[in-house]
Write a structure and sequence with these properties.
Largest sheet: 4 strands, antiparallel
Distance between the termini: 27 Å
Radius of gyration: 31 Å
Oligomer: single chain
Shape: elongated
Structural class: alpha+beta
Strand order of the largest sheet: 2-3-1-4
Order of helices and strands: HEHEHHEHEHHHH
Helix content: over 70%
Length: 292
C-alpha cells in the first residue's frame, strides 16, 4: 500500500513539475514574441526613417571639384547615412523619363541644378534636428536651395512615438501577466510540499536552508522552460525569415541575442522571485493554517 502511495505521489509531483515547465515555456515564448515585435518594429521604423532625404541644390558657379570635396565632407558628418550626388544632366534625363518627353527641347536650356541627396541616420530624422540642419545648410556658400518632405517627417515622428508608447504599455502588461502565471504555477508546485516545509522548520532548520532547494529546483525548471521557449522562437524566426526575407531575421544576430538573453534572464529572475515569496508564505503560516 505504501509503495503504491509513493508511486502515486511521484507521478503527481512529476505531473506538477511538467505543468510548471510548460507554463513557463508558453509564457516566455509569448514574452519572446513580444520582444521580437518591439525590437523589429524599432528596426522597421529606423529603416523607414533612413529613406528620408534632404536635397541640397548646388549653385551653378560651384565647380565639380568643389562639389566632390563638399560631398566627401558630408559623408564624414555624424548625421549622414549616405550622400548621393546627381548632376543637372542626370536630373534632366530622369525628369524627362518621368513625364515621357524631353522638356529641354522646348526650353533650350537645362533649368535644373546639381544636387546632393543626404540620407540621414534614423536618430536625426526628427522635425527639430532636420530644422537645425536646414538652418546650417542655408548658410553654406555652395547651397542655392534646400528641399525635404517636412510633413512626412512630422507624420513619421508622431506615428512612431504613438506606436512605441502602445508597445511599451502592451509589453508591461504581458510582463505582469507572465509573472502572475509563472508565480501561480510555482506556488501550486510548492503547495504540495507545505507540510515538509513546516516539519523542517519545526526541527530547527533555518528559512534560508529550507528555501534553498526549492529555489534551486525552480531555477532548473525555469531553465527547462526557457529552452523550450527558445526552441519555439527559433522555429518561428526560421518560418518568418523564410516567408518574409526582407526583414532578415536570421541575419540580425543582435536582435536574436537580445531575445535569447532576455528569455533566459526573465526565466531565472521570475522563478527566483516567485519561489522566494511562495516558500516565505508557507514558512510564515501556523501549523493549523496549512490545512486551509
Amino acid at each position: 500500500m505504501s509503495s503504491k502511495f509513493d508511486s502515486y505521489q511521484k507521478r503527481r509531483l512529476a505531473s506538477s513539475y511538467i505543468s510548471v515547465v510548460i507554463s513557463i515555456a508558453l509564457v516566455l515564448f509569448m514574452v519572446g514574441v513580444l520582444g521580437l515585435i518591439v525590437l523589429k518594429s524599432s528596426q522597421v521604423a529606423n529603416y523607414v526613417k533612413e529613406k528620408v532625404a534632404i536635397t541640397l541644390f548646388i549653385k551653378d558657379n560651384v565647380t565639380q571639384k568643389q562639389i566632390k570635396t563638399f560631398r566627401e565632407s558630408l559623408l564624414k558628418e555624424a548625421f549622414t547615412k549616405k550622400a548621393i550626388y546627381t548632376s543637372k544632366t542626370q536630373a534632366a534625363k530622369q525628369y524627362s523619363k518621368e513625364i515621357g518627353e524631353d522638356f529641354l527641347e522646348f526650353l533650350g536650356e537645362n533649368p535644373l541644378k546639381n544636387g546632393i541627396d543626404i540620407y540621414l541616420k534614423a536618430e536625426y530624422v526628427t522635425p527639430e534636428k532636420v530644422t537645425e540642419l536646414e538652418k546650417r545648410f542655408s548658410k553654406n556658400l555652395f547651397v542655392a536651395d534646400i528641399s525635404y518632405d517636412k510633413p512626412l517627417i512630422n507624420l513619421l515622428t508622431k506615428n512612431i512615438k504613438r506606436i512605441s508608447f502602445w508597445l511599451l504599455i502592451v509589453s508591461g502588461f504581458f510582463a505582469l501577466i507572465a509573472m502572475i502565471l509563472i508565480n501561480s504555477s510555482i506556488r501550486l508546485s510548492i503547495y504540495s510540499k507545505r507540510f515538509t516545509i513546516k516539519t523542517m522548520q519545526m526541527v530547527g532548520a533555518t528559512k534560508s536552508f529550507i528555501r534553498r532547494p526549492f529555489i534551486w529546483r525552480s531555477l532548473k525548471l525555469g531553465m527547462l522552460g526557457a529552452i523550450l521557449a527558445l526552441m519555439g522562437l527559433a522555429a518561428l524566426v526560421y518560418y518568418l525569415d523564410k516567408y518574409i526575407p526582407s526583414l532578415n531575421f536570421l541575419e540580425d544576430y543582435t536582435t536574436l541575442s537580445y531575445i535569447a538573453g532576455g528569455v533566459v534572464v526573465s526565466a531565472l529572475i521570475i522563478t527566483w522571485i516567485s519561489t522566494f515569496f511562495a516558500t516565505q508564505r508557507f514558512l510564515n503560516l501556523k501549523t493549523d493554517e496549512l490545512y486551509y
